[in-house]
Design goal:
The protein has 381 residues and is an alpha/beta fold. 33% of the residues lie in helices and 19% in strands. It is built from 13 helices and 19 strands. Bound molecules: nicotinamide-adenine-dinucleotide. Nicotinamide-adenine-dinucleotide (NAD) binds next to α6, α7, α8 and α9.
C-alpha cells in the first residue's frame, strides 16, 4: 500500500499533510510512504527528515499521483490531480464537501474513494482524528497574536515607575474550540477577557478560563442540536445578542469572532453600527470570514480600517503556524489512516462508525447523504 504526500499548491499554504514522525508510524504498519521533494520545507521538515523516517522522496509529481493507493493532502487536490490518480485510489484531506460539493464531482469519474477530514464524527473513538478541533486550536491562538500585533497598546497590566498601564480588554464571540483557545491565550498575555456564546455549556467553560461570560435572555429557545452544535437562530434572537455585543464592543480593545453554525452562513454578530461605536485603535479579528464573517464589514482575507478600527478576516491562520499545525493535522490523519490499513494493505470497512460517515465518494457515487442532498438541491434550483 503506497501512501503519497504532495507539496500543497494552494496560495499561502505552508502545511504538509504528514510529518516525518507520522511517516515512521505508518511505515511500522507496513505501509510505504512516498513524499514529493520539498513537501515539508515550509513546515520546517526537510527531504532528509522524511528519508530518515523511512519515506521515499521523489520529484516526479505525475508518477507519484499515478502510483498512489492513497493520496493524503491538507487541501482538496485540483481537478487535474484527481484525473491523474488511478481508478479506485483513496484521497484524504480537507475536501470542503459541504461548502463546495460539486468540486468533488471529478472524483466520481475515476471511482475515487474520498474521505473528508471535516466529516469525521466527533465521537470519543475519533477524538485523535479531529482535525477541525486541531486547526481551530491553532486559529484561536493565532487570532490573539494577530490582534495583539495590530493593537497599538500592550496586553498586560503593568505597574511601572512611570505609572500604571491598564490591561487590554478582549471580547471573544463564539466559545467553541477556537474561541476557548483565544480566551486562554489572551488571558496568558494578561488581558481582561469576556466572551459570548449561545450554547449554555459554553458559560462554564468560559468562566473556568478566568473570563467573564456575557449572558443574554433568548427567551428559552433551543440554541443547540443533539450533537452539541449551535443551531441557526431566529432574527429576533440574533438581534438580542447583537445589542449586548454592541454595548460591550464599545469598551473592548480587541474583538475576536469565531461563531459558526455548521453548514450555514456564519451568524452576523457585529453590525456596522457596533463597529462605528468602537474606540479608534481597536481591532476586530474575524475568524468566520470563509462562511460570510461575523462582522458586517469584514472582507475575507483582507485587513481594512473603518473609523480607526482595524478589521481583519484571515482565511487560513493555521497555515501561518505551519510547524505545529502540520504536526497536529498529521497525527489526526495518521490516526484515521490506521483504520484503513490491515497487514500493510488497504482495507476500507464502510460499516466502521468513523470510516463510513467520513466518506464522500465511493465506487462512483456520492455516499454521504448530506453532500448528496446538497448537490440535489443545487441541481433542482
Ligand atoms: P463551531 O466552529 O461550529 O462554532 C464556534 C462557536 O460559535 C460555537 O461554540 C457555537 O456555539 C458558537 N455560535 C454559533 N452561533 C452563535 C451565535 N449566534 N452567537 C454566539 N455564538 C454562536 O464549533 P466548534 O468550535 O467546532 O465546536 C462546537 C461544540 O462542539 C463545542 O461544544 C465543542 O466543545 C464541541 N466539540 C466536541 C468534540 C468532541 O466531543 N470530540 C470535539 C470538538 C468540539
Amino acid at each position: 500500500m503506497k501512501i503519497v504526500v504532495l507539496r500543497e499548491t494552494e496560495g499561502g499554504e505552508a502545511r504538509v499533510a504528514l510529518v516525518p514522525e507520522s511517516v515512521k508510524k505508518l511505515v511500522a504498519l507496513k505501509a510505504s510512504v512516498v513524499v514529493e521533494s520539498g513537501a515539508g520545507i515550509n513546515a520546517a521538515r526537510s527531504d532528509d527528515d522524511y528519508a530518515q523516517a523511512g519515506a521515499e522522496v521523489s520529484s516526479d509529481r505525475a508518477a507519484l499521483l499515478s502510483s498512489a493507493d492513497v493520496l493524503v493532502a491538507v487541501n482538496r487536490p485540483e481537478a487535474e490531480d484527481f484525473s491523474r490518480l488511478r481508478k479506485g485510489a483513496v484521497v484524504i484531506g480537507f475536501l470542503r464537501p459541504l461548502d463546495e460539493p460539486a468540486a468533488l464531482e471529478p472524483a466520481l469519474a475515476h471511482d475515487l474513494t474520498t474521505f473528508a477530514m471535516e466529516l469525521i464524527p466527533r465521537i470519543t473513538r475519533a477524538q485523535a482524528m479531529d482535525a477541525l478541533s486541531s486547526m481551530a486550536t491553532v486559529s484561536g491562538y493565532k487570532a490573539v497574536i494577530v490582534g495583539a500585533e495590530r493593537l497599538p497598546r500592550m496586553f498586560p497590566l503593568l505597574m511601572t515607575a512611570a505609572g500604571t498601564v491598564p490591561p487590554a480588554k478582549v471580547l471573544v464571540l463564539g466559545a467553541g474550540v477556537a474561541g476557548l483557545q483565544a480566551i486562554a491565550t489572551a488571558r496568558r498575555l494578561g488581558a481582561v477577557v469576556a466572551a459570548y456564546d449561545v450554547r449554555a455549556a459554553a458559560g462554564e467553560q468560559v468562566r473556568s478560563l478566568g473570563a467573564k461570560f456575557l449572558e443574554v435572555d433568548l427567551g428559552g429557545i433551543k440554541t443547540e442540536d443533539a450533537g452539541g452544535y449551535a443551531v441557526e437562530l431566529s432574527e429576533e434572537a440574533l438581534e438580542r445578542g447583537r445589542q449586548l455585543i454592541a454595548e460591550h464592543a464599545r469598551t473592548n480593545d480587541v474583538v475576536i469572532t469565531t461563531a459558526q453554525v455548521p453548514g450555514k452562513r456564519a451568524p452576523l454578530l457585529l453590525t456596522e453600527n457596533a463597529v462605528r461605536g468602537m474606540k479608534p485603535g481597536s481591532v476586530i479579528v474575524d475568524l468566520a470570514g470563509s462562511t460570510g464573517g461575523n462582522c458586517a464589514l469584514s472582507k475575507p482575507d483582507e485587513t481594512i480600517e473603518v473609523n480607526g478600527v482595524v478589521i481583519t478576516a484571515p482565511l487560513n491562520l493555521p497555515a501561518t503556524v505551519p510547524v505545529h499545525a502540520s504536526q497536529l493535522y498529521s497525527r489526526n490523519v495518521a490516526a484515521f489512516l490506521s483504520l484503513l490499513i490491515k497487514d500493510g494493505e488497504l482495507n476500507i470497512d464502510m460499516t466502521d462508525d468513523v470510516v463510513g460517515p467520513s466518506c464522500v465518494t465511493h465506487q462512483g457515487q456520492f455516499v454521504n447523504q448530506r453532500v448528496a442532498a446538497l448537490l440535489e438541491a443545487t441541481a433542482t434550483r
